[in-house]
Structure formats: C-alpha cells, structure tokens
Specification:
The protein is α+β, with helices and mostly antiparallel strands. The chain has a domain at 63-186. Helices cover 38% and strands 22% of the residues. The chain is built from five helices and five strands. The protein has a five-stranded antiparallel β-sheet with strand order 2-1-3-4-5. The chain starts with a helix and ends with a strand.
Length: 187
C-alpha cells in the first residue's frame, strides 16, 4: 500500500519545476531586443535633431516675417526706410540678445553673450522704369541714390535676412538656419 501513495520520480520532478522561462531563454530574448533597439535608436536621434532644426527654422522665419510686416506698415518716408544721402542702400545689422531679449544694433552689441539671431535689413529705392512684366529683378545701375527727390522714388525694395547666431564662414556652409525675405513697397 505504501507504494501506491508514493509518486513516481518523473511526476515529482514535473511538480517541482516552476512554469516560466529559463535563464538561457531570457538572455536570448534580451539579446534580440538589444539588436532591435540598436537598429531603431538612430531613428529616434535623427528625429530629435530634425525637430530641433525645424524649430530653429520656424523661429528664424517668424522673426523675419515679423520684421517685414513692421517695415511694410511704415510710411515710405520713414527713417527705417530712408536711404542716406549719397548711398545706394540702407543696411542695418542687428543682433538679438538672449539676456536683454531685444534687438541691438551690431555696433552697440559689444562682447555680450552670443546672439540668438542676426538680422540684416537692406533697403534700396527705384522708380517704375526699373521694373517690367518680364523683368522683376533690379539691376544695380537702376538704383536711385539717397537724396533723390521723393517724387522720383516709386518703389522701395526691402530685403530682410535673419539667421541663427552670428554670421560666420560656417553659416555659408549651411551650419546656421537662415531665411531671406524680399518685398517691394510702392507708393
């Protein structure tokens, strides 16, 4: 009778084995998961860098558009749009200070912290004979110099370029984000 109550050795081994994965199975699963992550990780890092670049380009574009809108709202004879006597164009360069949180003229910027943005505004003036239906580009010989009587100035060309940081040689190589907007303001 005692033999009937005693379980068979194979049955006892089955009862003591807990359900689940062995150490080798867990290590294999971790190795496979690691390989998948190594393949997917570059996608996440590229996505993050694209987001940063996209945000910078959006910020640069918005700052350029805002300045163009401000200049377009001014009267044609406003100081910000007046070419100095004897000059062919008015060029202003401003830098956006991260500490002062405002645009500061390049000459007054000094050794302040690296600017977040640089804004270059160029204004030139023309009369209507400088433009035709087939030619919308102005030649340098068609520019009216500063001091030209207001009755002859019919068009102001406004070009605004905003880029991240301070312009350098590297900015020409595509390291900085930049936007250039060109508008014509007529009387």
């Amino acid at each position: 009778m005692e033999d009937l109550a005693r379980p068979h050795p194979r049955e006892s081994a089955r009862r003591h084995r807990a359900p689940g994965f062995s150490l080798i199975e867990v290590l294999i699963a971790m190795a496979l998961a690691g390989l998948l992550l190594i393949g997917v990780l570059p996608l996440f890092t590229k996505s993050m860098s694209n987001n940063v670049e996209g945000n910078q380009l959006t910020e640069v574009t918005n700052r350029a558009r805002l300045h163009v809108e401000e200049l377009m709202a001014l009267p044609v004879d406003a100081e910000e749009l007046t070419v100095p006597d004897g000059e062919d164009e008015l060029v202003t360069i401003e830098m956006y200070s991260p500490t002062a949180e405002r645009w500061i003229d390049e000459d007054d910027y000094g050794a302040a912290p690296e600017p977040l943005f640089t804004r270059t505004t160029r204004v030139r003036q023309f009369n209507m004979s400088a433009i035709s239906q087939t030619d919308t580009e102005f030649a340098d010989d068609e520019v009216l110099p500063g001091g030209t009587p207001a009755s002859q100035v019919e068009i102001k060309e406004i070009v605004v370029r905003v880029n991240t940081g301070r312009p350098t040689f590297l900015s020409m190589m595509g390291r900085q984000k930049a936007v250039t907007l060109r508008v014509l303001k007529s009387l």
